[in-house]
## 1
Amino acid sequence: MNKMQKALHELSEMDELAARSTPLHALHPAAKLITTIAYILVTLSFNKYDLSGLVPMVLWPVLLFQISDTDVRSCFYKLRIVLPLVMAVGLFNPFFDREIILRVGSVGVSGGVVSMITLMLKGLFCLMASFLLMATTKIDNLCAALRSMHFPSMLTSLLLLTYRYVGVMTEELAVMTEAYHLRAPGQKGIHISAWGSFLGQLLLRSMDRAQELYSSMRLRGYHQHFHFAANRPFNGRDALYAACCILFFLLLRFISISQLLGGLFVR
Amino acid sequence: MHMADALLAPAVAATMYVASGTAAGISISKLKKDDEASKLPVMAVTSALVFAGQMINYTIPGTGSSGHMCGGMLLSALLGPQAGFLSMIVILAIQCLFFADGGLMALGANCWNMAFYGCFVGYYLIWRPIMKSKWFGSDKNAQRLRIIAASIIGCVLTLQLGAFSVVLETSLSGITELPFGAFCALMQPIHLAIGLVEGLITAAVLVFVYQSRPELLQCVDPADGEGAKASLRSVVAILAAVALVVGGGLSLLASSNPDGLEWALFGNAEEGYAENMGLDEDDFGVQSSAADAAGSIQEKTSFLPDYAFPDSEAAVGTTVSGIVGSAIVAGVAVLICFAGGFFRKKQKNV
């Protein structure tokens, strides 16, 4: 399976996840979007040494993964993209920040190690939150919610159209790449002699098709605005969900649950 | 170069959202004003193609490694800077939402680092001036050379700017202990090499488009010159060699001498900051009343997380309970997972 086929697989997997029906899927997309943004903001606001304060933030995504019956493995699979840069930045911390800030038994742990772990946890938690949003919300519904929040229609329309063509284009290129490699076995990528023509030919064909597509859209009454199948109205249940979640995040932000729980067992 | 959420502080992420949002707003109003909103399907198809095209590996001769296409320059050369910028935003949004490449809160920063520089700086400062100039002459050969030069210079410059922005945003967020200068020295040379390769690949695609359908390119007059056909391979090879020599030389210089900002930050200290800046040490020095006043204002207004660790004794005193508490939280999380599994099994059995 080449890179493009893997991407197609990931896209269809996300579509399938978003198409299920669970209590979380039933919530209004705006409520989910607002709570996700609030969660990420609160997570990012933790001090880099505040590891014990940050850890309880895991409870919200873990709970939602269970409620939405979502397999956490597909989320962790995406870590391969997020972690390298985060690790590259965080791995330097132990070398530059060597002050011992806590001791576990006789082993001293430096501030750099703590801040590196905090950074990685932040990356993981934010990924889990974003993944949950897309695993429980269809892109059409999300765009409709964005439109209702007065997000520019040009961007939402472009996002939807692009999302539809991403599948088509990726599939086309996957076939082309497969065909190229069958004729050039053992070659790692596209040879320099075909750099321009490989993508260029598809680019020209696609741009012509896009013009035809636009003409056909105009004939069917398109006037630069997509008409979304409207989401159901934002009701009290959605507001209650968003309010409870945000309150929970604030509670975790300002009260160290770990310290409190630990204090019950350790003097 | 996609930044994850964890690399940004909320204030920096919000600032970058405002900056990218403003650029997007201006682009949308410009497209509407010029009645170019009809470009939408073309923008969508082209951005979908660029999205997929960025996954193609192009073999770099003689190295065994591969490179990718530079989306921003390609889109702005085909669609114009505004439409190109919006298309790049959408590509980055899809990468972030469906592939976890970049983060939801880091989207503003990623749009700035990869779309703004590639589309606006690359187009207005590089592509348009070079394409409208008479560099290399006025025949078709010269036009091809201009496309190649604009693509390579544009990709190198915009990637350098993007990489510098990543360093700046991460450092401002207080995420890394890596000194600013060392971080720059790590990021800039890597992206110099990446920019060269991306520039060559982008040039190859744009030259192909020029040879087949020149009217599709921005700032290119299809009626320009009907001269002899150039040997593209030799032109690419010459420019690559020149770029490598220049780039390699520059990176050597960059690694042996601190850059301007680094010099300003650290180099001056030895020779006396106040002396160099022409300041009075008593009024503006580190121990001055002005510094104390600024410190107290900063303490009150600081929105970024305070990265100074609280007094170490108290910290050590509370860490044990913190560790135990964290372990309990982890236990609760595992319990939630088990409970979820238990109820799901029960539901299936029913």
## 2
Amino acid sequence: MANVKCTHCGLIFDESAMIIEEENGKKIFFCCHGCEGVYHLLNSEGLDSFYAKLGNTTLTPPKNSLQDDLERFDMEGFEKKYIKIKENGTKETNLIISGIHCSACVWLNEKVLHKTDGIIEATINYTNNKAKIIWDGDILKLSRIIQIIRSIGYDAFPYDPAIQEEQATKQRRDYYSRILVAVFGMMNIMWIAIAQYAGYFTGIEQKFKDILNIAEFILATPVLFYSGWIFFRGAYYGYRNHVVNMDTLVAVGALSAYIYSIYVVFSGYGEVYFDSVVMIITFVLVGKYLEVLSKKQAVDTLDSITSSIPTEVLKITKSKKELVAVENIKAGDMLELKAGEKIVCDGLLTIGSGMFDESSLTGESIPVYKEVGDTLLSGSICIDTVVQYRVTKEASDSMLHSIISLLEEAVTKKPRIEQLANSISGYFSTIILLIAISTFIGWYLYDGDFEKALIISISVIVIACPCALGLATPMSTLVGISVAAKRGILFKEASFLETMAKATTLAIDKTGTLTHGNLRVVNEKYYNNNTANISLIYALVSSSNHPISKAIKDYILGSGSKINDLQISEQKTIQGKGIEGRYKDSLIFGGNEIFMKEHGVEIIDTSTYSIFYVAIDDKLIARFDLKDRIKPESKRTMELMTDDGINCIMLTGDNEISASNVATEAGIKDIKFNLLPTDKAEAIDNMHKNGDIVIMAGDGINDSIALAKADIAISMGSGADVAISVSDVVILDDDISKVEEAYRISKRTYRAIRENLGFSIVYNIIAVPIAVMGFVYPLVSALSMSLSSLIVVGNAMRINGIKFDKDKK
Amino acid sequence: MSSNIMILMLSVSTFLGALGLLGLLWGLRSGQFDDQSKFIDAARYDNDEDFKDAVAMDEKQKKQREKEKNYRPVD
């Protein structure tokens, strides 16, 4: 059977599994009724040009799930929190739209919203998929808007932009305008400087030189004082805290070169250095701007978790059930939870039992079975039943809330390891400033000429000006980052390379990082070697959506056995135990050991894996051993890291047995198990207390606080959005050996940084004494400055020659 | 070349450049650059249909404003 593409979402499936329709004599295929519905809706609205715009992008098929939560959007508590009512009676809200894959999706959403009556303004940001919608409250309600968005296969959650986003946007605009001014000034001064240099070698009349000097002066002034304001501010804070930092060096260097050049403009003696003033300011400013950018992205995804929390819950009192705002729920209240709802308050299950998805807490994708008396933690999702529970903690003290507030805090208070260039530049600038002052005093006492003494002392600062020192780090990290990017490792910020090179500990998550994160069948056994019932087993597991059933289904499909289409009736899922059904006259059932014993089937063999037994009537017919397989590169990676002197620790939310199984296989000695997200973060804090510099690698929401707290956070590209946005390094292809490669690149880059810094110090040891003696001719200083920069750049290029473990094989 | 011509050339070209810079700064302050991808991607779908949309949107907003004008509190 051929594989065909779904007409709506573009995903490829087997033809037999598709819904087939005829349109204009042509066959069209859909993978599900959701896709079919959206396709017809778009066609009838005349929006089918969407598919041409979409190109080869694939979409997520729309979920036609049990979403009866629409009324929550119109409740009072919700409106107060997320909807702004404007003076003229129109309402405004901010939504995050999920399911957007490309710009065609944005186009479609905007289009559909524009067509809706009562919507006055709808704009969607192409970058972060956030929408601002203004509508007339008399004509339609927010729930209708959400419904419209859902009807075309996307979903939307309101969020509150006031918290962090507005501030981040403001800061970004501020930096951007400072950069624009700096770049404008720099580019103009550059072409004037070309005329200056040409004039220097070919002879230029002093009156023309004066004009060029003044033009440069006019252009450099706004760059230094507007764009460079950030450095003056940083230097001032440094002064207040008695720290000499990179900002001090940049500010003092630029300012002294500026003052020296002004003196040259008016005395007509010597050469101006306005070009170096604007160059330093512009380059260092762009570097700072990149840091601001990466901070903003983290804020963007944080909003999407906050907005998925329900604002109202169903409270049960003696007489009735009523919806109550989450803030009014106190410990001891009874709440009802429907299938698909997220828990907001921690509590104890009192009536009912069911499966709960705790993946955002433990990272494990397999649902957990809970019955009366078990604790329910907020953040987990009730999958399939209606249960009642007693609240033990108010929402604001509950797990979910503490995760979010910890995460918000951790994003803004990330530990910063002091950069080598920073600490060296601290000493360096102090020493240079002292040398300059003593040069001035020395020359003044020796020569008695105030002006000459001043000029020479300033030329000391200008010569020592952080050209090579300033380039030492950025050039090396730039090359390091590009080498990493070629191997599918994205460093979000240049300084992370240096921090990573200094790391002492690697904390690593189990599921999804060391392992594949989903169950696979590793072993099968057909009792009495009878494989005749394989079609029956296939039919049984096809009836359930549980990860174990799915794994077995995939396994049987992949084994190439011939499968007949059999119908099983009366199929039932028994929570936490297994599935059963009837075929003709016999009962067929599959599940764990307990389930088999309940049915009176004797089990003799044992195994360390999760086992799924299948029996017909009272006879065992087959068993499947399942486990989450470790990634093949895990072991080698851990070996290499340990060889490098890195202490590897596994942090997992899973239980002790499976944790130690994986740890032994991967060769990790140190494990911590049964950890909640907050425990993982605490583990990182404890390592910090011991003075360790920690790399954390993980992929789930449950790892995100720990990731945000670690000095270097590495996330897998397929991980949760939040994990990716709080992390510093992203491994695009989920290959764990890239963790080691990233570390290796960091170390190599760090070596280049140290070599470069060493070189620029040697350069200064030679150049500064010459300047102190007053021998600085413009030609000599220009030559030596560019030569020193070239050496630094050339040395950084050598990073490209790095070798990796994988390539050796 | 006299120095006056040089002053004129430098000041006129810098002034023109500064006008462009001011335009950019204005665009930045009014939020036109907040969305980088819109710059690149939205241009691909720009056609007269979208123009009609924008006009229809404008009319909706005008209607809203008129509604406010005619609105009298119930006495």
